[in-house]
Structure formats: structure tokens, C-alpha cells
Design goal:
Layout: H1 2-9, E1 12-13, E2 19-27, E3 31-34, H2 39-63, H3 75-80, E4 83-92, E5 98-104, E6 117-123, E7 133-139, E8 144-146, H4 153-157, H5 159-182
Parallel strand pairs: 1-5
Antiparallel strand pairs: 2-4, 2-6, 3-4, 4-5, 6-7, 7-8
């Protein structure tokens, strides 16, 4: 009967609470996961950006300055999405239960060690088959507050493309407003 009890205590469970306090048991080997880029978002951004791109192409051809304007990423590259590091993390609470959570993004190598006492703030993931992900870590042992950062769709698209899309959207809105006022 003791063997059965010890087997049950070694089982990994998924936490249901928002805050989990315990000791780090193990950081498993990390692997990459891709952020999905929604096609409607990508189409809207690229459409708005192409308005300014066409305007810039027209100005460049009138001024005949030459140059290609820099390399542009294609639809396939933008649709693929950024990758981020996923590190499975095992934590044991005061009752002896072993929990599995996921750490998304990078942390300094010295931030977490086995046996560190931590308080984790968790968030459920859209896929119910995945363990919750860590939003914030308070390493009670070292006194550090850690927030893992991952790539987002917006960081993947990049500031130049987003600024160009914003300018294109403003230009389209201005043209639409002028046509409403004058028409």
C-alpha cells in the first residue's frame, strides 16, 4: 500500500489555481514553439502598408533616386510567425504535489535553480492540453521578480511595417473623409 501511495505522490498534475507556491524541482529541456499569425491581421496590416509603399514607390520613381528601398519579407515569412522558447518547469508545493507548468521566453541562466522557493503567477493557455504558462515568478530564495518575455505578432511584423501600415490607414481614412465631405 505504501508503494501505491508513493506512486501517486510522484504523478505530475496541472495546477488549477492562479498562484502556485513551491520549490523548483526541475527545469526540463526547452524547445521552440511558433506564435500563430492570424491571416486577417496580416492582410489588414499588409494592405494598409502597401498604400504607403505604392506612394513611396511613386515618389521614388519621380525623383529617380534608384535603390531598392531595402529587403522586404514575403508573405510566407510573415505568416510563419516568430518562435519562442518553451521550458517545462516542475514545482513541488508544501503538500508534496508535483506540478508542471510552462515557462515561455528567456530568463537569465542564474534566475532559477532546483530547490529555489518560488511563487508563480499562472495563466491558462488557449489549448487545454497544455499546462498553464508562467506570467511572473517571484524567486523567494533570491528575492528576484522575474517576468519572462516572448516574441509577439507585433514584434514579429516589426516597427517599420507597422508604422507604414498606420500611415497607410491614416491616408485611406483621410481620402475617405475628403470624399464624404466633398461628395
Amino acid at each position: 500500500m505504501v508503494a501505491m501511495n508513493s506512486d501517486l505522490r510522484l504523478r505530475v498534475v496541472r495546477p488549477t489555481q492562479r498562484i502556485l507556491t513551491g520549490r523548483v524541482v526541475r527545469l526540463l529541456e526547452g524547445y521552440p514553439r511558433e506564435v500563430r499569425v492570424g491571416q486577417p491581421v496580416l492582410v489588414a496590416v499588409l494592405t494598409a502598408a502597401s498604400v504607403v509603399g505604392l506612394l513611396m514607390l511613386l515618389v521614388r520613381s519621380l525623383l529617380s533616386t534608384g535603390g531598392d528601398g531595402g529587403a522586404r519579407r514575403g508573405w510566407k515569412d510573415l505568416k510563419k510567425g516568430p518562435e519562442f522558447l518553451v521550458t517545462p518547469l516542475r514545482v513541488r508545493d508544501a503538500a508534496g504535489l508535483l506540478y508542471e507548468v510552462e515557462l515561455h521566453g528567456h530568463l537569465p541562466q542564474s534566475a532559477l535553480h532546483p530547490a529555489d522557493h518560488v511563487q508563480l503567477t499562472l495563466r491558462r493557455q488557449p489549448d487545454p492540453d497544455l499546462p498553464p504558462r508562467v506570467e511572473r515568478i517571484v524567486n523567494v530564495t533570491t528575492g528576484q521578480l522575474l517576468t519572462p518575455r516572448t516574441a509577439t505578432v507585433w514584434s514579429h511584423l516589426g516597427p517599420p511595417l507597422l508604422i507604414q501600415a498606420l500611415l497607410g490607414a491614416l491616408l485611406l481614412a483621410g481620402v475617405a473623409a475628403c470624399s464624404v465631405v466633398t461628395g
